[in-house]
Amino acid sequence: MSDINLHDDILVDIVRRVGRENFLFLGPIMESGRRGLTAVRNEVVLYETNLLHFIANGDQVREGAPYRGLFVRCLESGNEIAYLLESLRVAYNEGNVFKAINLVRRAYMRSLLTVFILGMLLICAGSFTIGDQILRALHWWEDVHQFNLLGAMVYGMIEKLDPPRRSTFTAIFRCDQTACGCEGEWFGSCMRCCVQYNAMELMSLS
């Protein structure tokens, strides 16, 4: 990398574009030498680096995992995916739900996923009313199918973290006391009980 006659700003911009495609593409640049490593560690690069790989490979962000170091640098730069994945890891692997809520709050409203995770963590932590209000920011709030798809995605992300299941939320979770009228096979067919159903599913992983 040191043999390339490029201004530092130009090099960082090139590396930023590479990282936006996939963080895995940054590996050869990091291994090319000090200048490449410095460019990858630039906060602008880390902030925009595409970490979607970790959505399906959450085990790779756990303590001691090979990519943990780069992931933490992305987290420190304010990377959205890093915030939401770390919030789930902290909530489910460390059992610190309130620290997790503070983490995901930093990325709140940057995507539907962060809104969903923040709302659900608040509900699981016993703040149903606040969590419910946050979830209403989702533009397809009344679409039960889409809501459940997002819930299934987050459930899968948490499973990949392989949480120890210490019943973190059991003592603080409170169900919505407002009756919606849905019973039996109809439970989960309206948004009120759909939210409650997804919260209980996520709580079962804690």
Describe the 3D structure.
It is a single chain. By secondary structure, the chain is mostly helical. The protein has one domain (51-203). Helix content is 57%, strand content 0%. The chain contains 11 helices and no strands. α6 runs parallel beside α8 and α10 packs parallel to α11 (191-203). The longest helix is centred in the C-terminal third of the chain and has 17 residues, at 144-160. It is elongated. The N and C termini lie far apart (45 Å). The mean pLDDT is 86. Keywords: Membrane, Transmembrane, Transmembrane helix. The chain crosses the membrane at residues 112-131.
User: Helix-strand pattern, N to C?
Assistant: HHHHHHHHHHH
What is the tally of beta strands?
0
Amount of helix: 55-70%
Between the first and last Cα atoms, what is the distance in angstroms? 45 Å
By DSSP (H or I, 4+ residues per run), the number of helices equals 11
Low-confidence parts: none
Overall shape: it is elongated
Q: Which structural category fits the helices and strands?
A: mainly alpha
The whole-angstrom Rg is: 19 Å
Oligomer: single chain
Approximately how much beta-strand content do the residues carry? under 5%
Give the tally of structural domains. Answer: 1
Mean pLDDT: 86
Biggest sheet layout: none
